[in-house]
Amino acid sequence: MLYPLEPIATIRSPFREKFATPRQPGLTPSVTATIEFCPGFATPEALRGLDGFSHLWLIFLFHHNWQKGWTPTVRPPRLGGNQRVGVYASRSPFRPNPVGLSAVKLLNIINEQGNMALEVQGADLIDGTPILDIKPYIAYGDSIPEANCGFATEAPGTPLTITFSEQAQRQLKNYRSESPDLETMLTETLALDPRPAYRRDKKDDQGYGVLFDRYNVSWKVTDVELIVLDIVPNTPETATARLRLKQHDPME
Q1: pLDDT digit string (tens) for 125-144?
Q2: Residues 136 and 191 grouped into a single domain
């Protein structure tokens, strides 16, 4: 039997691509996102009482993956991308039903002439992700401190040290009025090391690039740090250059 589902909202975030989007919520606390409700799914009445909760569960659709199918086993990045586990023992987006779940912090409820939106913090969702449902986070039932977390018992390893080249520093200064938090957001995001797991413990001479918010960002990783080389507004030309940086990456 089929059960039709209709998105109730869409999230707007600075993560424009799967590459470099955090793999879990809450890892980039400076990054905020906006949940824009679809017509008919939010009125002030529908959100009544939500301001009493500090955190929310977002149930969403992996819209970049839903047509790609699934396999019974996957290779989680936390295991180096080499060891397979069952899909139900992972948070892989390639699932029988491509549905995800993320906990976020509620910052603000926006009401602009009856058009409702939510500002949230710590979302790990790509811009444009369809939201299927929103539920309040309830600590006494949702938090289980003694839970056994299998192979993901700890937060990601030591963050990379982030350095901005002289050129990138000048660019950040130029963008400060329109994007005052850009440096902090990039530092938190890139410190998680978005590279494929199989590249992280090897000498890596490849350049990387990603579309973040309205900017194309390029960087390289040395033995001791990640160096942001260039931050330029997104244009067709800069997008083409960024794709050339990524074309040898079979994980993307």
Answers
A1: 999 999 999 999 999 999 99
A2: no
